[in-house]
Design brief:
The protein has 178 residues and is mainly alpha-helical. The protein has a single domain, classed as Hypothetical protein af1432 (Orthogonal Bundle), CATH 1.10.3210.10. Helix content is 70%, strand content 0%. The protein contains ten helices and no strands. Helix 8 runs antiparallel to helix 9 and helix 9 packs antiparallel against helix 10. It starts with a helix and ends with a helix. The relative contact order is 0.14.
C-alpha cells in the first residue's frame, strides 16, 4: 500500500500546477487517480504496481520527470509499464497518435490495462466535460481514434473491455443528440 501512496504523492507533486483542458480546468491529478480507480473498481485490478503505474502514467510525458526517476523511485516493473504508455513528445501529434495505434498490439498485459483505463477516462471526459475548444468533430475524431487504439490492445480484461465499449456507445449517443 505504501507504494500506491508514494505514487499518489509523487504524481500530485509533479502535476501540481497542471490543469485538465476541460471547461472546469479540473486539477490534472484527478485524471491519473481516476484511471487507477477504473482499474480497481471496473477491472478488479489489485496489483499495486499496475495501480501505481496508472497513477504515474502521464508523469514522464507531461512533466519534467525522466523515465530513470520512475525506475529509481518505483522500480523497473512500474517504470516499464509507464514507458509503454508514454508518448514521445518530440514527435508531432499525428505521428504520436499513429504510433499509439501501431504499438498497442505489442503491449504487455499490464500496459494494456493502463492504456484501456486511460482511454475509458478520456472518452468519459470528452463526452461529459470536453476541452472548451473542442468542437463536435474533434470530439468524434478523438473517440474514433481511441477505439482504434483499444481495439489493437491485447485482450486482457473483459470487464474493462466491456466498460470501454459501453463508454464508447454512450459517447456516441451524446454526440448524436448534440
Amino acid at each position: 500500500m505504501s507504494l500506491l501512496l508514494k505514487a499518489l504523492h509523487f504524481a500530485a507533486d509533479k502535476h501540481r500546477d497542471q490543469r485538465r483542458k476541460d471547461s472546469n480546468a479540473s486539477p490534472y491529478i484527478n485524471h491519473p487517480i481516476y484511471v487507477a480507480q477504473i482499474l480497481a473498481e471496473v477491472g478488479g485490478i489489485d496489483d499495486l504496481e499496475v495501480l501505481a503505474a496508472a497513477i504515474l502514467h502521464d508523469t514522464v510525458e507531461d512533466t519534467e520527470t525522466e523515465a530513470a526517476d520512475i525506475e529509481r523511485e518505483f522500480g523497473q516493473r512500474v517504470a516499464s509499464i509507464v514507458a509503454e504508455v508514454t508518448d514521445d513528445k518530440a514527435l508531432d501529434k499525428s505521428e504520436r497518435k499513429r504510433l499509439q495505434v501501431e504499438h498497442a498490439s505489442h503491449m504487455s498485459a499490464e500496459g494494456a490495462l493502463v492504456k484501456i483505463a486511460d482511454k475509458i477516462a478520456n472518452i468519459r471526459d470528452v463526452s461529459g466535460n470536453p476541452p472548451a475548444n473542442w468542437d463536435h468533430a474533434r470530439r468524434v475524431e478523438y473517440i474514433d481514434w481511441a477505439e482504434q487504439v483499444v481495439c489493437n490492445c491485447p485482450k486482457v480484461n473483459s470487464a474493462l473491455e466491456r466498460c470501454f465499449s459501453d463508454s464508447l456507445t454512450s459517447a456516441r449517443e451524446v454526440f448524436r443528440s448534440a
